[in-house]
Specification:
This protein has a 17-stranded parallel sheet that branches. It has a 15-stranded parallel sheet that branches. Strands 4-7-10-14-16-18-20-22-25 form a 9-stranded parallel sheet. Helices cover 7% and strands 35% of the residues. A hairpin with a 4-residue loop joins strand 65 and strand 66. It has 10 helices and 69 strands. It has 4 domains: 450 residues; 237 residues; 192 residues, no CATH class; 84 residues, Sandwich (Immunoglobulin-like). With 1019 residues, the chain is mainly beta.
Length: 1019
């Protein structure tokens, strides 16, 4: 496999250097109001400053390389997003967008030394968010005052400059005048409507990241080996940050965090009070000789809050909080609570492995500069703060796996599972931006989220994925054992491998598991037996991938996407109930005399472990009696099991099949599988939400095949799962696949579908079995055990706008083996669909684009504004379901990008990529209104200004989900007023602004149809 990977890398280099065209880009290449795209088949060379002006949009495809020409001052090269311009640079873990210098091949780590810096400029984004500068608008460093395109600042905390995701910025920092070098990524008054996550700056001559005011929120940032500060904020920055990683080179780097407040005067407002959690800042190392390596400095009245973070490896002090004799300073911010440091670990600081508080925060002596004495100050208040046990600052070894800065694959800053970073208590932040994780620092154990897409990975600083291959047979793990799959190996399954009772299999994020080919008893599969557990906890940037022997899942050219049946699959067996006459039975394809193949029991909360961010590809070998293995088989799996973010791609049989059980699932993808997308039977009673089913043009039967009992049909418990927010896309009207159908319920199956979309099935959309005698699925419909509510049906039975008869036609008599199988009428089904109280609609859901082709970038399953954003059913508030304001599996964000085979094979578009809990509604400028046809006369708010209480009145012309929140002038959410489904009519809300300082605030109301924002003055 290693030789294969080396060959693939060599081919990539050849392809990169010999096939890509080079396009020189100067400032006239894109003009105000234009939309331009940089594509991955070209190299773009920036010739001096290139501005993306107001109204212009620059779109950059995944995998694109942008180079900058050398030059200083006015000849420096940089890409600058001006106020009102937008950049959409949405890479992926497989295909990052790379900024580097002219002539550099980023896929060849031998053509130039890693340590090169200052060879081009950098990336600068300028926005309209607030700063605390005396003038609202000013020019960014290095751009002349008379150049309007260099200005930043404004009054819109939700300003949107676009998207940066999976972007690596390398070797920049050229001098732009007056001794200023360009930062790797400069953010001037960038607003919170902008998305910035998974961005690396490596070997930049100046800072890695610098925030000049603004309110932008960021996640997953890497600042590696930069010349000045890793992270620098000033001018009233008030954004949020999480999962920031910094590491200094042995011979360069100043502060881990340089944090300044006002900019003459220091006490200008808003104060800098960002909230930052889960950082790991590593200095130059105790023996490096870099006397400038220091941790955090907060000065010039800067505040800020660091939570759940690690500071280590600094040769000098760890913390400096400026405390002047007179005036406002950062010491005041500490006293007032605007500066906080809680639940943090400090280690190996001031060249002492176990530092004292004085080592971490020593007093600052007087210094001389230009013949003047600069008065020092005591750091005793800072030391007292750190020593206060209620603040949870610990001097202890965080237990990071390996710190190294060489090109030797040894850097691994993840903590061990038993380390202080994992066992210490964490501070939970009551803000939806933050992921409340149970570890300190930027990394969970085993989750090196900067693998693959960063220069740290390509320059061999951190370990490579899948270097060695280990063959795994059934005797590799035995009952009661605990074993690990780690991502530096590939694990090859040789026939059935059982994780037996009491055994645990832990799989590291990014691990590749392959299955050998073979049929029946020679088939390969991973089977979690009853009482065994699997912990396959991948991440968006490091999914766990199951595929066939020899496949490199990161090379989409080595085998066709359409391959299937080349290995088995993943099977989970549990102790939850089924409705089989016998409580326990063997799963399909495993002989009855093999106890390890049994499933079923009486524990609905049975726990088989965790399967998250897992992609299962190209499986479905024959295991006997005409049965192929499903991609993921659930045999009586219980609700204690966690299943979410799982993809099955090109399996010969079903994507997912549930044989009874109670397991709940979210974020499932069944793409291009040979039989059914989702199949349940034997009394399955779990819950599901956010399921995507997508059939290939030439294969696939039911989007949902739903059966009840298993001889007899009326055995209990009945199958009555509840599924919401499914999007089922068939083979397409012109595909020729006559087997492509929507939902079938039979054998007494019930089930409830809410807020879902069915479209593109060539056959019928719905079949509810209605027999002449006995219990059947129509009985479940009549009894309320089967529901289809708030479902959109479109382009079914080859008709773009089908009738109810097209969706649910009668089932005729058929013959099989010389016998006549009696058909049945679906009139009761049609009556149900026609009943307006069930809110089934035949309307176009306006799915953005549908494609089934590799290398098309054509699939975008998100619905545009329209019917899918209305008539949404409010779901049970049971702790499982997520309330949405849309129908189908996707809202404004696309959760199916980063980790899937759909992405690897370039089927799905990367625009709008997000990971749930990170979805941001379309931003709206303050004091503005989007088209909102269901709200009459905007919002009436009186009295305004308000002293004690104000009334908010509005009229809804349609029922809709309504959220209403209060924000301060910096974009921080103060409180929520409403979050619920509201019916048509007039509504009134009273708001009492308790304990708020006088000033301007904003009330933002969002419905399915748009957003209003109203300014309110609090006296």
């Amino acid at each position: 496999m290693q030789k294969l990977l080396q060959l693939i890398i060599a081919m990539m280099i050849v392809g990169y250097t010999s096939q890509a065209a080079t396009i020189t880009v100067n400032d006239s290449w894109i003009n105000a109001g234009e939309k331009k795209t940089m594509t991955a088949d070209n190299i773009y060379v920036l010739d001096r400053f290139v501005f993306v002006e107001e109204g212009a949009e620059l779109w950059i495809e995944p995998g694109t390389v942008i180079q900058g020409k050398p030059g200083q001052e006015s000849n420096a090269s940089a890409l600058i997003i001006a106020r009102g311009g937008k950049i959409y640079a949405e890479g992926t873990p497989d295909k990052p967008i790379i900024f580097t210098f002219e002539g550099d091949d980023p896929y060849d780590n031998t053509d130039y030394p890693m340590e090169e810096s200052g060879l081009w400029g950098g990336l600068i984004i300028l926005g309209n968010a607030p700063t605390n500068n005396p003038e609202t608008v000013r020019n960014i460093e290095g751009i002349p005052e008379n150049n309007e395109l260099g200005k930043y600042g404004g009054n819109d905390p939700m300003d949107n400059s676009g998207v940066l995701r999976y972007v690596s910025i390398r070797h920049g920092g050229s001098d732009i005048g007056e001794g200023n070098e360009i930062n790797g990524l400069s953010l001037g008054a960038v607003g919170a409507g902008t998305t910035i996550e998974y961005v690396e700056v490596i070997y930049n001559k100046d800072d890695g990241f610098e925030f000049f005011g603004g309110t932008v929120n960021t996640k997953y940032l890497v600042s590696a080996f930069n010349g000045d500060d890793a992270f620098d904020y000033d001018e009233g920055f008030n954004g949020k940050g999480q999962f920031w990683f910094a590491i200094q080179a042995p011979n360069r780097g100043n502060m881990g965090g340089e944090h300044d407040g006002g900019n003459k005067p220091d006490d200008s407002q808003p104060y800098a009070r960002p909230v930052i959690s889960n950082v790991t800042y590593i200095g130059s190392g105790a023996n490096s000789g870099n006397s400038k390596s220091a941790g955090l400095i907060l000065r010039d009245n800067a505040g800020g809050k660091y939570y759940n973070s690690i500071f280590t490896g600094f040769t000098t002090w760890g913390l400096n909080i400026e405390d002047l004799e007179n005036g406002e300073d950062s010491g005041n911010r500490l006293t007032t609570g605007d500066l906080a440091l809680k639940n943090n670990i400090w280690w190996d600081i001031n060249s002492k492995t176990t530092p004292s508080l004085t080592d971490i925060a020593p007093d600052v002596p007087d210094t001389e500069s230009g013949g003047k004495v600069i008065k020092g100050y005591s750091m005793q208040p800072a030391r007292d703060y750190l020593a206060n046990p209620t603040n949870n600052n610990w001097i202890t070894n965080p237990g990071l796996s390996s710190i190294d800065r060489g090109q030797n694959e040894l850097l691994n800053p993840t903590p061990s599972a038993s380390s202080a970073a994992v066992t210490s208590p964490t501070l939970k932040i009551g803000d939806s931006f933050f992921d409340n994780v149970d570890y300190i620092g930027a990394f969970a154990p085993g989750d090196l989220w900067f693998s693959r897409w960063t220069a740290l990975y390509s320059f061999d600083v951190t370990r490579k994925i899948g270097k060695n291959t280990i063959t795994v047979t059934d005797d590799w793990i035995k009952a009661g054992e605990k074993k690990w799959f780690t991502n530096d190996n590939i694990y090859l399954l040789d026939r059935f491998v059982f994780v037996e009772e009491g055994a645990e299999l832990w799989i590291e994020p990014g691990t590749i598991i392959q299955g050998k080919p073979g049929q029946e008893s020679n088939a390969s599969a991973l089977i979690i037996a009853r009482g065994g557990k699997i912990y396959a906890n991948g991440t968006p940037s490091q999914p766990i991938i199951f595929t066939f022997e020899g496949d490199d899942p990161y090379d989409n050219t080595d085998y066709p996407m359409e391959e299937s049946g080349l290995w088995g699959g993943l099977i989970l067996l549990g102790n939850a109930p089924t409705n089989n006459p016998e409580t326990v039975r063997n799963i399909e394809g495993i002989p009855e005399n093999n106890e390890l193949g049994k499933y079923g029991g009486n524990d609905p909360m049975d726990n088989s472990g965790v399967v998250r961010y897992v992609s299962i590809r190209h499986g479905g070998t024959d295991i006997g009696e005409g049965n192929e293995i499903n991609g993921l088989t659930f045999g009586a799996v219980g609700a204690g099991t966690t299943i979410e973010f799982v993809e099955v791609l090109y399996n010969t049989d079903d994507g997912f099949e549930w044989f009874g059980g109670t397991v709940n699932t979210k974020y499932l993808i069944s793409a291009f599988n040979g039989d059914d997308s989702f199949d349940y039977d034997e009394g399955f009673n779990g819950k599901g939400q956010f399921w995507l089913g997508l059939q290939a043009a030439n294969r696939g039967n039911m989007s949902g095949e739903h059966d009840g009992g298993n001889k007899p049909d009326d055995s209990a418990p009945y199958a009555i799962p509840q599924i919401s927010n499914a999007t089922y896309i068939g083979s397409g009207a012109n595909s020729g696949n006559s087997k492509s159908m929507g939902l079938i319920f039979r054998d007494n199956a019930g089930g409830k579908y809410f807020n879902s979309i069915l479209t593109e099935q060539t056959g019928k959309g719905l079949d509810i079995e209605d027999l002449e005698n006995g219990q059947d699925s129509e009985s479940r419909l009549a009894n309320g055990d089967l529901h289809l509510q708030n479902v959109i049906w479109w382009n079914i039975d080859g008709k773009e706008m089908p009738t109810i008869n097209d969706i649910a036609p009668d089932v005729p008599d058929t013959e099989s083996g010389g016998k006549t199988i009696k058909g049945y009428s679906l009139q009761s089904t049609r009556d149900y669909l026609n009943n307006t109280t069930n809110a089934n609609r035949v309307v176009n859901p306006n799915i953005a684009s549908i494609s089934r082709l590799a290398d098309s970038w054509g699939l975008d399953p998100r619905p545009a504004q329209g019917p899918a954003w209305s008539a949404v059913k409010e779901l049970s508030n049971d702790g499982f379901y997520t309330q949405t304001d849309y129908i189908g599996a996707f809202g404004k964000g696309n959760w199916a990008v980063d980790w899937t085979g759909l992405n690897t094979f370039n089927v799905i578009k990367t625009s709008g990529a997000m990971n749930p809990s990170k979805e941001v509604l379309t931003s709206v400028s303050w004091n503005s209104t989007t088209t909102n046809s269901n709200v009459n006369n905007n919002i009436k708010l009186y009295p305004n200004p308000v002293e004690k209480q104000t009334n908010i009145e509005f009229e809804l012309t349609n029922s809709t989900m309504v959220t209403m929140d209060v924000y301060d002038a910096t974009g921080n959410r103060i409180e929520g007023l409403v979050s619920k489904y509201m019916t048509q009519g007039n509504w009134g809300i009273t708001w009492t602004p308790n304990n708020l300082v006088s000033g301007a605030y904003f009330i933002q109301m969002t419905t399915n149809y748009g957003t209003f924002t109203q300014k309110v003055i609090v006296k």
